[in-house]
Write a structure and sequence with these properties.
By secondary structure, the protein is α+β, with helices and mostly antiparallel strands. The chain has twelve helices and 19 strands. The protein has two domains: 272 residues, Beta-lactamase; 81 residues, Lipocalin, CATH 2.40.128. The strands form five sheets. It has an eight-stranded antiparallel beta barrel. The protein has a five-stranded antiparallel sheet with strand order 2-1-11-10-9, with helices on both faces. The chain has a two-stranded antiparallel sheet with strand order 3-6.
Length: 441
């Protein structure tokens, strides 16, 4: 008995010693990618959480001013559109509608909406309709007037552009109308459909049809680094964003959702899933996007809303996944973080750390510049020991991991210095690339 007892004790001791070390090693590996970003998220006053599944291991990292994890709840924004598309495809499977049906078959006439448009046209964002949730969303979020939510938002759809019919043009109005079609066809609330047909079957116990202040473990939304939780109004998400952006979830629950969507038939038949994933030149399917990242195919549909941003990348071939959110409207370091996280999942070499001598290294390039193509002025200036880009009233910290390139954490601006032309910078932002000339003293 004593010999057996000793074996048991040694076995338990081995488990206790091995498991934490293994767990920490997994977290530590992901930390090699994320830790360098931590002080900058803290400076911005926001929190960031990422979940990565690589092989058989799932890892989570938290950065910034808040200790968020895979169980923190947040608004997935336009990620809601994939759920709306799934519900539409379920109705097609039941024989209750056809994607070729005109929307006028289900909806009474709506101002500035052509009733002859098909359901499929809305799913593909090829309707040319005017944007309902556009420039006014910030005003809607912060409104203190209940009258705003007493109005019929469908009456507020602005005129569209008929020349864009048949051409991809992302528009929230499309998926808001699809939500109303679902309610008409099923005679149920859209939010009940989400709960009954998606959340419950997938075991998504911490996912909610729309965001509201009483949700447990809810990340506080921020704007400009300031907490705007007290401005939260469930009607903004339930009535304004509706079936285009209402859902609140967690990274853990979104991982469950992807497993059920791609590896089981919980939500859709294989034929319907194939239809959902078929994309055109825009790489947009039915509520989901196709992305080629580091030579592999990923699917996802992130979202941005006031106070929240969410990104998701799922590889159905390898089942690798990257899920992340931040409690601000934009994901700082968005492209760089995505590239480094995907590279990590693939086992590729990681990007270099940020330079700590930015000011000294780039001091000669400080000063005022003008973009040669459009005449826009900006300045490189040292403020409180940090190199900043001052442009259009904004002050953006500049970082670098190379000898000749500076970049901003937000808005995706890159500045490349020219050693042979010290008075000229290459200015890049998205697809735009131009030169900037330094003003003479």
């Amino acid at each position: 008995m004593n010999h057996f007892k000793s074996i048991v004790q040694l076995t338990v001791l081995f488990i206790l010693l091995w498991m934490p070390a293994n767990s920490q090693a997994q977290n530590g590996q992901l930390a090699h990618v994320t830790d360098k970003y931590d002080p900058y998220f803290k400076d911005m006053g926001v929190g960031f959480s990422v979940m990565v599944r690589k092989g058989q291991h799932t890892e989570v990292a938290s950065l910034g001013a808040f200790d968020y994890d895979e169980h923190t709840t947040f608004n997935i924004g336009s990620g809601t559109k994939a759920f709306t598309a799934i519900l539409i495809l379920q109705e097609e499977e039941k024989g209750h509608l056809a994607l070729t049906d005109s929307i006028g078959k289900y909806l009474s006439p709506i101002k500035n909406v052509d009733g002859s448009l098909s359901i499929l046209t809305l799913l593909h964002h090829e309707s040319g309709l005017g944007e309902l949730v556009g420039a006014g969303y910030e005003k809607a979020f912060f409104t203190t007037h209940d009258s705003l939510y007493a109005t019929n938002f469908l009456d507020q759809i602005p005129p569209g552009d008929t020349s864009k019919v048949g051409t991809f043009s992302y528009c929230n109005t499309n998926y808001i109308l699809l939500g109303h079609i679902l309610e008409k066809v099923t005679d149920q609330y859209y939010f009940d459909l989400l709960q009954d047909r998606i959340f419950t079957p997938c075991g998504m116990q911490n996912t909610y049809p729309y965001l509201h202040r009483q949700i447990p473990n809810l990340a506080h939304p921020t704007q400009g680094g300031k907490d705007v939780f007290d401005h939260l109004n469930h009607r903004f998400f339930a009535q304004y964003a509706f079936s285009a952006g209402s859902i609140a979830s967690t990274l853990a629950d979104m991982e469950k959702y992807y497993a059920h969507l791609f590896t089981q038939t919980t939500l859709l038949s294989p034929a319907s899933l194939k239809k959902m994933l078929e994309v055109g030149e825009s790489n947009y399917g039915l509520g989901i996007m196709k992305m080629e990242l580091h030579g592999k195919t990923y699917y996802g549909h992130g979202g941005n809303n006031l106070g929240y941003a969410y990104r998701d990348y799922y590889n159905p071939e390898t089942k690798e996944i990257v899920l992340l959110f931040v409690n601000s409207e934009r994901v700082a370091f968005g492209k760089r973080l995505k590239d480094e996280l995907i590279a990590y999942v693939h086992g590729e070499a990681q990007g270099p750390v940020f330079r700590e001598d930015n000011v000294a290294h780039f001091q000669a390039f400080t000063g005022k510049y003008t973009l040669d193509d459009i005449g826009l002025e900006f300045e490189l200036k040292v403020i409180e020991g940090e190199l900043n880009l001052l442009i259009q009233g904004a002050s953006l910290i500049l970082l670098s991991s190379q000898d000749n390139v500076l970049f901003t954490a937000e808005f995706g601006v890159e500045l490349e210095v020219q050693p042979t032309q010290p008075d000229v910078l290459l200015f890049r932002q998205g697809r735009m690339a131009t030169t900037a000339s330094k003003e003479s003293l």
